[in-house]
Structure formats: structure tokens, C-alpha cells
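User
New here, help please:
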Amino acid sequence: MTTTLYGIRNCDTMKKAWSWLDHRGIAYAFHDYKKQRIDRATLEGWAREVGWERLLNRAGTTFKNLPDADKQDLTEAKAIELMLAQPSMIKRPVLAIDGRLVVGFKPETYTEAFA
């Protein structure tokens, strides 16, 4: 099983996901959005699979601090450009397990994903 956890290092939700995985002895690779960036093809693939609305972190300060013009009339293309320019706007974590995606962290969702 190939497992990759995508996100940023300084995030409380990421810390919960790491703890959950580590506590269960699940091996995974970590991909840091800020340091390693995320490529357009990956982000577009995720958007096709789970929807760009689910990937865009509207609750974070990065999104909230955008000019109103950038937040209005969002489309998939506009949202992807925003996420590529500022990876903090990608919801986290994104867990990729053998080609399946889990966006966000909830213990019960992770339990189902690894069942």
C-alpha cells in the first residue's frame, strides 16, 4: 500500500493526522505543499476526483485575507490558480492511499480508509 500525506508542517489538523497514522504504525511519505509545492496536474486530478470546492480551504487566513475580487466568482480554474500560487489554500491534509483520496482529517474517515 502506497500512502502519502500532503499538507504543511505548521498545522494542527496535520498534527492530528500524523499522530493517528504514527499511533497505528502506518508508513507514509509526507509532501509539504510549501516546501515542495504541488504541481498543476496533481491538483487538477484531485479536483476531478473530489471537487475543487472540497480542496479549497476557505476557512484559513490565507483565503480570508485575499482581496474580495479574488474570492468572488470562483470557478475551478480560478481556484486552482489560487491554490497553486498559495498552497496554504489547499485543504489539509490530503491523504492519498493507493489512488484514493481522503481530504481533511476525521479519525472515523481514516479508520474506514485503512479498513
